[in-house]
Amino acid sequence: MPAHAKPPFRADHVGSLLRPPELLRARDDAAAGRIGAEELRAAEDEAIRSVVAMQEEVGLQTATDGEFRRTTWHMDFIYQLGGIDPATGEQMRIHFRNEAGELNFTSAALSVHERVRLDHTIFADDFRMLQGCVTKNTPKLTIPSPSMVHYRGGPASIDPAVYPDVEEFWSDLSAAYAEQVRRIGELGCTYLQFDDTSLAYLNDPAQRAEIAARGDDAEHMHLRYIKQINAALAGRPEDMTVTTHMCRGNFRSSWVASGGYDFVAEALFGELNVDGFFLEYDDARSGGFEPLRYVPRDKRVVLGLVTTKHGELESKDTLKRRIEEASKYIDVDQLCLSPQCGFSSTVEGNVLTYEQEVAKLRLIVETAAEVWG
Known about the structure:
There is one protein chain. The protein is 38% helix and 19% strand. The chain contains twelve helices and ten strands. The strands form three sheets. A six-stranded parallel beta sheet has the order 5-6-7-8-9-10. A two-stranded parallel sheet has the order 1-4. A two-stranded antiparallel ribbon has the order 2-3. Strand 7, helix 10 and strand 8 form a beta-alpha-beta unit. Helix 1 (21-31) packs antiparallel against helix 2, helix 6 (166-186) runs parallel beside helix 9 and helix 9 (221-233) runs parallel beside helix 10. The termini are close together. The mean pLDDT is 93.
């Protein structure tokens, strides 16, 4: 079976990559006022050119900018939507855990204080720069799903004076995203990814309990999110491949939620109008492959079998065995291989080295070639 000619590719990756020390120092210098915005962007450009070259060298068919200009995978985008800003004095805390203990991710809460709109094409200059860096790979843009605007803030983040009818909020949000999709399509983007932790979190009964406690319909929230994502993608360009990535949290090698995809699987795989699903499958927290039986024949699943949470390298034999297990529920020709998540969903990055990151990406390319040719 030949390599896919269009994304998602047999060997692929989620998007974020470890920030090099030089870039982290430049960010610190910019925050302290020792360098200006132009000098910071020059440092980012240099780091991005290098990491794009690395992706091409290991044999990947796609390339991202590693999300090197962002602090987090989602908030840098969300705060650029018109009508949405950080809530003054309010904090949003997300509880993470790993084998060693627990830690919290904290940022400013969301405030939807005006009608949601798209004031400018978000990440337009960043994507143009990425396009100029690639020599043979397909540039991929990653943005947070519209679901994340609601899941992060909840009903309390939406000013009822602005949106007395919540349906108008959903309509405006999807319209803003649809315009973003249209505009980046005009820039030549043919590979777009919606990153969405909510659709994975909702498989966890503890997460559904939290959602219900804040006043949302936790049992049907995934149906609302699927509906709004579909609305955002309804007018996408014909030559644009869209995937979604779902994980259960990724911050400094820690996670938030557990549970298989069973709760959302039938609606998610059957109704979400994307071309492929990047699914976290690097350990037992993600459940089994049985939910893949709901994936239609015209969609692809990128199995996230290689973990980004530690540097120990997986064996090819184990990866091949896992792909074979998944093929009991979905045709092997619909499958691809990737890490389970990004290597650096936030600027801090996960607990592994650059050399280990490269080794994992190379392993994915080599394993995919041996499985699919």
